Amino acid sequence: MTCAWNVILLDIEGTTSSVSFVYDVMFPYVLRELDAYLDSAWNEPGLAPVLDQIAQDAGSEDFATWTADCTDESERRAKVATEIRRLMDGDVKATGLKALQGMIWKNGFERGEMIAQVYADVPEALQAWTSAGLRVYIYSSGSIGAQKLFFGHSEAGNLLQYFSGHFDTTTGPKQVAKSYDTIAAEVGEAAEKVLFISDVVAELDAAQEIGMDTRLSIRPGNKPVKDGHSHEAITSFAQVSLG
Ligand SMILES: CSCCC(=O)C(=O)COP(=O)(O)O
Ligand SMILES: [Mg+2]
């Protein structure tokens, strides 16, 4: 059997998994744990680059410059917590925020306080696609660390074995065509050999602009999509026909 694609690239929220799991379980977990996490992890070396990224996302050079007006560490921590809450209120998909969320979710997934929801057709499709010789990658606004925690602790078990790799916003914004060019180059395929599935038309438009094939994911609870787009819609991965 010859297949139209060599690679399937997947979004998470609204595609493999429900928007409500992210908004009603994962984001509240971050808001609940944020202050305690910042207190306990403040001096850990892994936090420093994330704080620099949060400062850069806010338009500053680095964390030291961004917090130059703070008189002590508790003021610096409070400034970070306020910024994280502001970004989450606006659902901003900033790279630093996403990295910090991933670090906070680590405890939740590893202690079994959260188990990632995936649609029932997802594990079956991952199995079928990889058995057919396709490579599957994730491209999500969630950090690569968060993606690995998520699929490593799903209600269908550890699904990481199915993925050949992961991309997040460190590759570029999801609504920008150049990001998909970079991904095609990194996975070593012509854009035409990549199928991208997402719930967001602007992301699909960007992928289509460079020649990727696309499917619009329609799942319960997704934001309604306006007519007039040029993407075939699917309600289940079982509708992806390998030819
Ligand atoms: C494990 S990713 C958690 C969900 C998340 O934070 C997010 O922003 C998902 O965005 P997507 O690009 O997958 O729609
Ligand atoms: Mg999505």
TrEMBL record:
Co-factor remark: Binds 1 Mg(2+) ion per subunit.
Q: Which UniProt keywords apply?
A: Amino-acid biosynthesis, Hydrolase, Magnesium, Metal-binding, Methionine biosynthesis
Q: Which Pfam families match?
A: Hydrolase
* Alphabetized GO MF terms: 2,3-diketo-5-methylthiopentyl-1-phosphate enolase activity; 2-hydroxy-3-keto-5-methylthiopentenyl-1-phosphate phosphatase activity; acireductone synthase activity; magnesium ion binding
Q: Which top EC class is given?
A: hydrolase
| Annotated metabolic or biological route of this protein | Amino-acid biosynthesis; L-methionine biosynthesis via salvage pathway; L-methionine from S-methyl-5-thio-alpha-D-ribose 1-phosphate: step 4/6; Amino-acid biosynthesis; L-methionine biosynthesis via salvage pathway; L-methionine from S-methyl-5-thio-alpha-D-ribose 1-phosphate: step 3/6
UniProt EC number: 3.1.3.77
SUPFAM superfamilies according to UniProt: HAD-like (SSF56784)
Lineage: superkingdom: Bacteria
Swiss-Prot/TrEMBL cofactor(s): Mg(2+)
Q: Which reaction does it catalyse?
A: 5-methylsulfanyl-2,3-dioxopentyl phosphate + H2O = 1,2-dihydroxy-5-(methylsulfanyl)pent-1-en-3-one + phosphate
Q: Which residues form a coiled coil?
A: none
Q: Carries keyword Amino-acid biosynthesis?
A: yes
The alphabetized list of GO BP terms reads: L-methionine salvage from methylthioadenosine
Stored NCBIfam families: enolase-ppase (TIGR01691), HAD-SF-IA-v1 (TIGR01549)
Known partners and oligomeric status: Monomer.
Family, per the entry? Answer: Belongs to the HAD-like hydrolase superfamily. MasA/MtnC family.
Function description: Bifunctional enzyme that catalyzes the enolization of 2,3-diketo-5-methylthiopentyl-1-phosphate (DK-MTP-1-P) into the intermediate 2-hydroxy-3-keto-5-methylthiopentenyl-1-phosphate (HK-MTPenyl-1-P), which is then dephosphorylated to form the acireductone 1,2-dihydroxy-3-keto-5-methylthiopentene (DHK-MTPene).
Checking PANTHER family in the record gives: ENOLASE-PHOSPHATASE E1
- What name appears for this protein in its UniProt entry? Enolase-phosphatase E1
Which species is this record about?
A: Bremerella alba
